[in-house]
Amino acid sequence: MDVTGVIAFGYYDGVTEGVARQAFGADYCYFKVIAWDGGQDDRLHAVVEISAAAYLRIASLLESAQAAPDLHAWVPAWDHLAEAHRTELEAILKRLQDDLLLKGALVYSIGMGQREALRVAIDASNATRVGAALLEDAPGDVAQWKREL
To answer: Rounded to whole angstroms, what are the CA distances from 116 to 12, 63, 88, 108, 110?
Structure first.
């Protein structure tokens, strides 16, 4: 297994969704940017720690269609995934998003994730809003999240 950093499922001026090793204070985690400022520099991530097994399974499924490059961040193409692998990968990601709502955190970072400024647990007071944000195609305005932070 050659994957050593971030496996990106979304990318726009930086990784917007993915799984990572040694990020956000976790050995392995799933994350998604749910809001950012106008310059996309200050970002609000929803983050949950995941098992090494989940990370390695995701990498293995993706590597079945494309060799992982020797880079910190890999943006794999899903086009050539076998249907069974795509279905399994989608199910894993759905479970990770469900876990995020149960035991995840909102992490506000400055400088495109370079410096963590604030961390708040996802709980009953914000889980519905976070769940809705996870379904959006693009991050919202971080200013609209001030109450949760």
So the answer is: 20, 31, 32, 6, 6
Q: How far apart are CA 121 and CA 100, in angstroms?
A: 10
Buried b (16+ CB within 10 A) or exposed e, 132-143: ebeeeeebbebe
Burial class (CB in 10 A: 0-12, 13-18, 19+), 104: buried
**Residue 61 · residue 88 · CB < 8 Å:** yes
Q: How far is CA 122 from CA 16, 56, 67, 86, 118, in A?
A: 19, 25, 35, 28, 13
- Locate 2 and state its tokens: 């050659």
pTM: 0.91
Token readout for 115 is 């410096």
Per-residue model confidence as pLDDT tens for the chain (149 residues): 344 689 999 988 888 999 999 889 899 999 999 999 988 889 999 999 999 999 999 999 999 888 777 767 888 888 889 999 999 999 999 999 999 999 999 999 987 667 778 999 999 999 999 999 999 989 999 999 988 88
